[in-house]
Design a protein that fits this description.
Elements lengths: L1 H16 L14 H8 L8 H13 L13 H36 L3 H15 L2 H15 L8 E3 L9 E3 L1
Antiparallel strand pairs: 1-2
């Protein structure tokens, strides 16, 4: 609970400290009424404390409101992102297990320059911080097109449900 409180408070504080808000996307020629009409449904006209308490009450009921960018409820978008994350985690776990076991058996059963090279590469890969490794893999995916770097599952219907998903 403390982690949720600190993370949500930090996100709200950082969003408030950033210049502009989502109404900046309306453009420089938007009237004051348009800006206020856009801010009101998202409660941006309230104080940060009341925004946080309102968010907390709605989040406790799993009501995350509507997305300004997609103009649809946030809940199905979160479910879709969670499905992508789960798929990525499962594929990563299977790949890491298969490669790790294969290389472990190879280096355990052999000695020589090739086995030492594999051990050295393994040591370097384990020693790299996860952020560096993930950025390198995203770069590789974007440059080669081997993996989807900008999203994986998408909805084919207006209602993003589990049965209507296809792979891009």
């Amino acid at each position: 609970l403390l982690l949720i409180a600190v993370t949500s408070s930090s996100a709200l504080l950082l969003a408030r400290l950033a210049p502009g808000d989502m109404t900046s996307q309306l453009g420089p020629f938007a009237s004051r009424e348009e800006v206020e009409d856009t801010r009101a449904p998202f409660n941006l006209d309230r104080s940060p404390a009341s925004q946080w308490w309102l968010w907390l009450g709605l989040a406790a009921r799993f009501d995350f409101g509507n997305s300004f960018l997609y103009n649809r409820p946030v809940g199905p978008l979160v479910v879709r992102a969670a499905a992508n994350t789960a798929l990525l985690g499962i594929v990563s776990l299977i790949t890491a297990t298969a490669v790790g076991l294969s290389l472990g058996i190879f280096t355990g059963a052999r000695s020589g320059p090739l086995a030492m090279f594999v051990r050295g590469i393994s040591l370097v890969c384990v020693s790299l911080p996860p952020l560096v490794t993930s950025l390198a893999l995203v770069f590789l995916a974007a440059r080669t097109g081997w993996f989807p770097a900008g999203g994986m599952l998408s909805s084919t219907a207006s209602d993003p449900g589990w049965l209507t998903w296809t792979i891009d």
